[in-house]
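Re: folding output
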Amino acid sequence: MNKKLIGIGLAVAFVIGFGSCKPKQSAYKSVYEAAKERDVEENTTSAAVSKPATTTPAYTNESVRKEKITPVYDSDASGLKAYSVVVAAMAMKPGAESLKERFGNDGYNIILVRNEQGMYRVIIASYDSKEQAVAKKNAILSKYAELGDIASLKAKYGIPFNDWWILQREY
């Protein structure tokens, strides 16, 4: 009887001890997303401060992030151009592939790329000019905004729609 109680006690202690050691991915994700938002805000603020207030096309005020990237899949290489609309940046390949699949189910031809730091970029459109990329980004976001239910779209894809950005490919 005594050995049985000790065995049960050890089993319970084992479950409790190792059950609480799971990594908190959501905590890491929220810290990463907050840092990314600050980075985008700083880029936007510095771009707005350094440019004079004039009437210029919307694409000239759009901030651009430059990176050396490579396609994850050879089949994506032909679709990758100089300027791309990035909908998400992810550290883990399975998350990027999952997002690619969800957008693909809605008819988008998503391109996955990886930068030199190992981050995956999920690209929804890629063009030769910045103007085309910005226009496509704005068109897609306007389409979703017209639906009037951004919250359900965010829940569907798991990404914030106000955080899309333009990536300029460095060679």
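--- second protein (sequence, then structure) ---
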Amino acid sequence: MKKIGYARVSTKEQKLNLQVDALKKEGCKSKDIFTEKVSGAKKDRPQLLKMIEHLREGDVVIIWKLDRLGRSLKDLIELVSKFNEMGVGLKSINDPIDTTTSHGKLIFNIFACLAEFERDTIRERTKAGLNAARARGRVGGRPKGLSKEAKSKAEFAAMLYKKRGAEELSILDICKRVGCSKPTLYNYLREQGVKVGKRDRYS
């Protein structure tokens, strides 16, 4: 059995000394300690992957705290589940977690259950919210139709388009007056039931 250490700090300005010294006191040899300076939010943690490749059945991963290993509870549970499949234990120096003992396994299983409960609760709330919205005649997604401001612009655009001949207005002139692009202008006109001539579409 080997004790494999993993230490991480979030920024280059932070020091790893405290974690590394603690890992050595727990019995990790220098050559078996993997360290990196990278934010936990980042997906790429090369030294963590290298450590996992280095693990063998019967080994124990030693860490300073749980937040040094996992980005989130979900991530942590996935990693420990992977360790369990490999026959590898986990011990956190500053948390009551040691999966090599029955007590530590119990606590971690409680964490896993809480995480699953949280996921189920979120799913149920989302489902209930969608059902309530449907009951009120609303569905998920972007609301259809134009806003009040857009409707006013559409009405103004339709009026200008219908008078364009008398006032010698080009499509670009109408766009400038309405304050929109040509594609938006055509959307406004369609919304108002105004048929746009082929010549205007390609002008």
